[in-house]
Amino acid sequence: MKTALAIRHVHFEDLGTLEPMLRQRGCAVRYADCCAEDIGAIDPIAPDLVVVLGGPIGAYEDDLYPFLKDELTLLDHRLRAGRPTIGICLGAQLMARALGARVYPSGIKEIGWSPITLSAAGRNSALQYLEDMPVLHWHGDTFDLPAGAALLASTTLCVNQAFSWGDAALAMQFHLEAAAARLEQWFIGHACEISAARLSVTQLRADTARFAARLEHHARRIFAAWLESVGILNRSE
Asked: Is the pTM of this model over 0.85?
């Protein structure tokens, strides 16, 4: 049985649409919650898949959140070994940093639903279904593209939205995993950030009702294609 480990920073930012797909296709899923579990004690190579999830802290704030050093070490070992790895939002930023790139505040809060534009590499990747499609953004930091990485997607506010590195690493600033049924918890858990950014929960809720079902549909196709390409799921299933 294949195994998937999700490193989680806040409880409501979970695997979303990815989790039922993995479970339904025979993959054992386990969460490692930062602070509640010693991330440094995890074998970085053993899981067939590692997904590093999002969270409202900076990938460069290891002086405030020392467990980030353990995540960076885990990612360094795993990426260098070519083991299948996905990073989402903070997870993508940590992947970029583990690969030697700079992560820093962008000066702009990109929160809400807006489309991404795919690069030529993106149109030839598993992300191909997302061309000009609204996806969920929730970040204020960005990163430089790591050496050797292929840029897959951009927005007007954030050039480096997604990249691949090697054959088995996918990093996305946006929340491809977002599931409409869970986003009400985001609106509560991120209430202070929403207010500080002068955003409307009512508008976020309306946009979620408008766009989330389509994103969920395409996310399942994208995750399946990528997981098949790295051998986590069988192509025949």
From this structure: yes
